[in-house]
């Protein structure tokens, strides 16, 4: 009975993480009314790096040259992904941004095949097909049509997929906290450089900007990271993957409640198709891992 309560508690904690991640889309979009995209990202990653350093001082102190270099590489993919996503939010809705970002999970097996020649499963190919259908429906006139933000966010999904593929190859050999700190610190430096080149510092500390920085820099990064580590010791990886699929659903819900965003019938069908593709891709990858086969993502 006690183990069942712990498992339910872990599921609820992971669902809360998915909800927090979903909230970030609307929070960031509202913050961009008073802040430059790269100014906001610089502050976000600086806060996240500081929180990790304060919460895990010993593990962050384990940084060595190899961790810094590998974390730097992963951090560049992280910077590319969040830069494209954040700038994309200037032109598209929070709901569409969340669903399109989720396509990164579907793209991961294909990019893994391109990098390591690990053949994707049939389920992965089917997942890509569902994601393509979903993107088509989201880009249809009935869902608001395609725009520059959608294209930038699709580029974000590619960058995040490359981040997943790269992380999979380097993470098992290094401490996760020191590696996370290295990539987040790299993202802070890279975002600061982009800020200096593209827009100059612009960060008005309005209620939405401050709340978005707290949500993204503290809860969506440091707190979510700690909760995920705790919960994954008490439930299966497949279970975690399925729960995290709720992130874009929460994003659409928050966008509707806070901003009155409505996807429309085609948009809802497109989002549902992408969610189905994400689930198939996640379950297919976990199935192969459980059966002892080579990983595809």
Primary descriptors:
79% helix, 297 residues, disordered C terminus, mainly alpha, single chain, 0% strand, globular, 13 helices
Give a verbal description of the structure.
The chain is an all-alpha fold and 297 residues long. The chain has one domain (2-290). It contains 13 helices and no strands. Helix 2 (37-55) packs antiparallel against helix 9, helix 4 packs across helix 9 and helix 6 (103-116) packs across helix 8 (148-170). The chain is globular and about 50 Å long.
Q: Overall 3D geometry?
A: globular
What characterizes the major β-sheet? none
Order of helices and strands: HHHHHHHHHHHHH
Number of strands: 0
What is the mean predicted local confidence, pLDDT?
Answer: 84
Number of helices: 13
> Helix share of residues?
over 70%
Number of domains: 1
N-to-C terminal Cα separation, in Å? 35 Å
Describe the secondary-structure layout.
Layout: H1 2-31, H2 37-55, H3 57-60, H4 65-88, H5 94-101, H6 103-116, H7 122-138, H8 148-170, H9 176-198, H10 207-231, H11 237-244, H12 247-259, H13 264-290
Helix pairs in contact: 1-5, 1-10, 1-11, 1-12, 2-9, 2-10, 4-8, 4-9, 5-8, 5-12, 6-7, 6-8, 6-13, 7-13, 11-13
Write a concise synopsis of the structure shown.
79% of the residues lie in helices and 0% in strands. The protein is an all-alpha fold. It has one domain.
């Amino acid at each position: 009975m006690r183990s069942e309560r712990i498992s339910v508690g872990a599921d609820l904690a992971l669902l809360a993480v998915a909800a927090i991640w979903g909230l970030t889309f609307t929070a960031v979009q509202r913050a961009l009314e008073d802040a430059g995209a790269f100014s906001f990202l610089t502050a976000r990653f600086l806060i996240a790096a500081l929180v990790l350093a304060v919460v895990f001082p010993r593990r962050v102190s384990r940084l060595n040259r190899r961790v810094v270099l590998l974390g730097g590489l992963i951090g560049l993919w992280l910077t590319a992904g969040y830069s494209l996503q954040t700038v994309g939010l200037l032109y598209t809705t929070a709901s569409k941004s969340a669903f399109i970002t989720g396509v990164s999970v579907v793209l991961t097996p294909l990019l893994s095949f391109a990098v390591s020649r690990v053949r994707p499963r049939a389920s992965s190919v089917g997942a890509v097909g569902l994601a393509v259908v979903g993107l088509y429906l989201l880009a249809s006139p009935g869902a608001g049509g395609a725009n520059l933000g959608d294209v930038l966010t699709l580029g974000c999904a590619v960058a995040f997929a490359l981040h997943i593929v790269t992380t999979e190859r380097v993470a098992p050999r290094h401490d996760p906290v020191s590696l996370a700190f290295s990539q987040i610190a790299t993202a802070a430096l890279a975002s600061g450089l982009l800020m200096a080149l593209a827009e100059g510092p612009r960060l008005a500390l309005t209620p939405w900007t401050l709340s978005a920085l707290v949500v993204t820099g503290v809860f969506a990064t440091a707190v979510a990271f700690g909760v995920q580590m705790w919960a994954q010791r008490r439930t299966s990886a497949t279970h975690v993957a399925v729960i995290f699929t709720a992130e874009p659903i929460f994003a659409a819900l928050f966008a509707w409640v806070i901003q009155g965003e409505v996807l429309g019938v085609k948009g809802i069908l497109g989002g549902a198709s992408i969610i189905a593709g994400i689930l198939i891709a996640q379950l297919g990858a976990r199935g192969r891992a459980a059966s002892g086969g080579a990983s595809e993502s």
